[in-house]
Structure formats: structure tokens, C-alpha cells
């Protein structure tokens, strides 16, 4: 039985049609902290659907990967967008992910040719509950959400002047030319802000526990920290019930490292649906902007109900 992810995809870039060798699928086992008390998949968990569908198998077997590695070229995450909210599901059953990838060419802000790998995936689970009365549709498939990730090809361990990849290795061909994504374009043009730009209560200090083998702070640390700050801001403005992250989008301009100190600036808008949009900028003490974020939070739903119709409104911009 097929499921429709259109409700989630409409908040993301359009998924391109790619050949079968650029498509993949896989499963992802869940932990207790991945599913909320009302049976929804946590947004940060959904980001791992990319790994389950593509990194573990399809991309590992792609002949371009060793070619790039031999030249010190790595795909570095520059944009991540996640939309979730389907359910309820039980933590016992794995979720299934299916997606694809595409190699594209773009011009960056300086007019330089850049190459990007775009990855995208849908996540599907099965209706279920952990406690209480079994769900009326237990065992049937349910769309859980979708994810989009952009990676710029770069040589991160080369001297600074040699890190930009402006030509592909011999044998590699891009599919098409696409527009360059400007990080600040993820911000809303709305002006009815409930709270204008303000710093979070305390600075952020990164430690080794925030880093990964790419030698910098892991990309998922930022949306996690943003969620905590967003909840504090919502609480301060009386929106205590608006607490589920149904969508987030992060744009990564510059990495951070263990020992770095950043400040997080946020602003808050209440949407016409009664939910909230929070936007953020992670910057260093000198004001250099490193990471940009946009997050939609929605209120809780009655236990046992379907969440496929959560109202994000128009959203991505």
C-alpha cells in the first residue's frame, strides 16, 4: 500500500526525477527518544533518513566516491531541511526511507562555479502505539515526513586557496545547472514579529562532544540548540503548548570547532494558524554569521489521532 508524502514535500525544494542507480532505500531502527509521547517522529531523527536511504548503500557503491576521495574532495553539508508530523507510530517498528541524489552545478555568491550533491528522502512508518488501546489502523503504512540536504563539493583539508572545487574529476558529469542558494533567503519576509531579534540567555560553548569525524561541530547540533532556545522564547511569550518542531531548515555558512564560543540570535512570529515561526543566526563574538536557521513549531494533537494534516501554512519563506 503506497503513501503520499506530498503534504511534507510542499515545504521543501522539488524532488527531481533521477535514474534508478541514483535512488535508494533502507530502514532505520528507532530509539525511545526518537518518538514523542503522542507518537510523532522527532524532526532531528528524520534527518537520518538520508543516511538510511542513500549513504549506507547507494552512495557507498557509487564509483565517483573513491575518485573524489583520491583528490581530497568531500561533500560538505550546506543546507538541511526537514518536515515531519505523521503518525502515530510505535517505537518498536523501524521506519523505512526512500530517496535519491543528484549532482548539480551552480554559481556561488562570488560568481565561481561550484558543484553540489543534493540528497532527498521520504520516511514511512506504520500506525501504532506503545501503550493503551491499539490504533484502529495498526500496521498500515503512514507517511512520516521528508528531508532535503545540499552538499557542496570542497577540499576541506587543502590550503584555503585550494579548497573550492570548480571542476569535476574526469568521468564525473553533473545533471543540470541550478540556482545558488543564499542562506538568508530561508528567512521569512513577514514583518509581524511577536519578538524581534534578540540574543538567547547565554552564549554557546562547544566541546568535543559536539564534534564529529569531519573535524568540526556536527551539523545536527545547531537545530538541537535552536530548538531549546526557541522553546524558551515561546514560553516567555505565553506559547507553552506550541512545542513540536514540525519543520526546520538550516543553512551552514562556516564551521565551528571545539572551544568556539557563539551567540544565538532569534526572532519569533505567531502564524495565522496559531503556531510559531522562529528564525535564528549563530554568530561568533565578532559578529561573523556562521549558521542560519528557520523553525516551525506546532501545538500538540490528541493522542491516537492522525497528524497528516498539521497546518504549517505557506511555508518555507
What report would you give on this structure?
The chain has 317 residues and is mostly beta strands. The chain folds into two domains: 1-181, Thiol Ester Dehydrase, Chain A (Roll); 182-301, Hotdog Thioesterase (Thiol Ester Dehydrase, Chain A, Roll), CATH 3.10.129.10. The protein has helices spanning 6-9, 43-46, 49-55, 58-61, 64-70, 221-236; strands at 23-28, 74-84, 95-107, 113-126, 141-154, 176-177, 195-199, 204-205, 242-252, 261-270, 276-283, 289-299. Strands 1, 2, 3, 4, 5, 6, 7, 8, 9, 10, 11 and 12 form a twelve-stranded mixed sheet that branches. A hairpin with a 5-residue loop joins β3 (95-107) and β4 (113-126). The longest helix has 16 residues, at 221-236. It is globular and about 60 Å long. The two termini are 33 Å apart.
Layout of secondary structure:
Blueprint: H1 6-9, E1 23-28, H2 43-46, H3 49-55, H4 58-61, H5 64-70, E2 74-84, E3 95-107, E4 113-126, E5 141-154, E6 176-177, E7 195-199, E8 204-205, H6 221-236, E9 242-252, E10 261-270, E11 276-283, E12 289-299
Parallel strand pairs: 3-6
Antiparallel strand pairs: 1-3, 2-5, 2-9, 3-4, 4-5, 7-10, 8-10, 9-12, 10-11, 11-12
